[in-house]
Specification:
Elements (H helix, E strand, L loop, with lengths): L7 H10 L5 E5 L6 H14 L7 E5 L11 H9 L8 E6 L7 H11 L2 E7 L7 H6 L4 E5 L5 H7 L8 H11 L12 H21 L7 H13 L7 H10 L9 H17 L3 E8 L4 E11 L2 H8 L6 H15 L3 E7 L2 E9 L2 E7 L6 H12 L6 E6 L7 E2 L2 E5 H6 L1
Parallel strand pairs: 1-4, 1-5, 2-3, 3-4, 6-8, 10-11, 11-13
Antiparallel strand pairs: 6-7, 8-9, 9-10, 12-13
């Protein structure tokens, strides 16, 4: 048995949803730890007195279940194993391997006393058909690679290594759990990331989208990686790629833009990119045009482009975005008049405005970062995150925080 590495925040979410009549769906990019989380949950159930007979735990990508490729055989097989007495916990890993699995899941809910947990590596798992069938009867737990806080507990460091050096490693290698095996060996880590990336591209994207072209997908992926944290639109990306001959020129901007939008949507569906819309802070409305795209893990970006210290500003912005998602915020890019706020982060009873910058030392930079926040008329918390360890922790009520402290808070 492989030693399981704790992911307490995600396990706590599963435990909070336990025995609630909703199907629990854990989503996220391949190899980010979903299967291990289900193993941890299985262990939790056993430790809390649930009999093994009442836990049915299957990974549908195992050849052991190769004959269960459609929902009817899957339903018959599982229902034959559900005990007559007590609640049974159904745990299904990589369920997208079963066609029309959602019909079986709905039937288990109706026919038996069960609590259901599912993982899947692409958003087609939550396709419209499924959403319609289980409308309002499922909860999605979105799993991400390791946060910086988790990264520190995952790896063992010599006592002499400073938190700044550890953070530098995190910026370079990212948080895919598998990399722990390679102890920061760059060549081996890149090979492992390449393997995951190829699987995502070939299995979760190209298999699903027979019209898609691998070379075009790769070019768009590289473009997005190079422009993390920059405001772009599918049309503007389409223009650049048409100019480079990647997309056929002369078919009109709209066609190129639509093509790019389709490919970005595929990358989103495989959980490798997140698109963030813009929000007009004063007008209090979402804007239809121009957003930003962030990658799920820095390791992939550095594997594709090579790690460059010059990009640190955009890299830390990406890390802050992912951290806000982990903390259950809905995230937008803020527009205040003609200026931008990096992030507007929203919860039902809370709102944060956040600027991210490498340094606030230069007066010019400081003014540029503070200006949009000063223009916001409401009293919600406003924060600038930077890599400065400074004794100044507030500018006119706008908090100035050391990024590493914020990530570890």
């Amino acid at each position: 048995m492989v030693e399981l590495i704790e992911r307490p925040a995600y396990l706590a979410q599963l435990i909070q949803h336990k025995d609630v009549d909703l199907v629990k769906i854990v989503t996220g990019i391949r190899r980010c730890g979903k299967s291990s989380l289900l193993d941890l949950f299985h262990q939790y159930l056993s430790d809390h007195g649930v009999a093994e007979a009442n836990i049915i735990h299957m990974n549908l990508e195992s050849l052991r279940y190769r004959n269960l490729s459609d929902y009817l055989t899957f339903y018959d097989y599982v229902s034959g194993r559900i005990p007559k007495v007590g609640k049974t916990y159904l745990i299904f890993d990589e369920l997208q391997a079963v066609t029309h699995w959602e019909k079986a899941i709905e039937s288990f809910r109706l026919d038996f006393d069960v609590d259901i947990y599912i993982t899947g590596s692409n958003a087609y798992l939550l396709s419209t058909e499924f959403s319609t069938l289980l409308s309002g009867r499922y909860v999605e737990i979105r799993m991400l690679p390791l946060s910086f806080k988790e990264f520190l507990t995952f790896y063992e460091f010599a006592p002499s290594v400073t938190v700044e050096e550890k953070f530098q490693r995190y910026l370079q290698f990212g948080g895919m759990p598998i990399l722990r095996e390679y102890q920061f060996n760059e060549a081996r880590s890149n090979q492992a990331l390449e393997g995951i990336y190829s699987t995502v591209v070939l299995r979760d994207i190209l298999q699903r989208n027979s019209q898609a072209d691998q070379a075009t997908l790769q070019k768009i992926m590289l473009f997005l990686c190079s422009n993390i944290g920059s405001i772009t639109s599918p049309n503007s990306i389409g223009n650049v790629l048409s100019g480079e001959g990647v997309l056929p020129a002369g078919r009109g901007k709209a066609v190129a833009g639509k093509t790019v939008e389709r490919y970005i949507s595929m990358l989103r569906s495989a959980y490798i990119f997140y698109s963030v819309g813009r929000y007009d802070v004063k007008g209090k409305q979402l804007l239809k045009t121009l957003g930003k795209n962030y990658i799920v893990d820095m390791g992939f970006r550095n594997m594709l482009l090579g790690y460059r210290d010059a990009d640190r500003g955009h890299i830390i912005e990406n890390i802050v975005f992912l951290e806000l998602l982990r903390r259950d915020y809905r995230v937008y890019i803020g527009k205040v008049g003609e200026t931008e706020v990096d992030f507007v982060a929203d919860k039902p009873n809370e709102k944060l405005y956040i600027q991210v910058t490498e340094s606030m030392q230069a007066l010019e930079t400081r003014e540029r970062e503070l200006r949009p926040l000063r223009m916001i008329p409401d009293n919600y918390e406003k924060i600038v995150l930077s890599m400065d360890r400074s004794y100044i922790n507030s500018y006119d009520g706008i908090k100035s925080l050391y990024l590493i402290d914020w990530l570890l808070s």
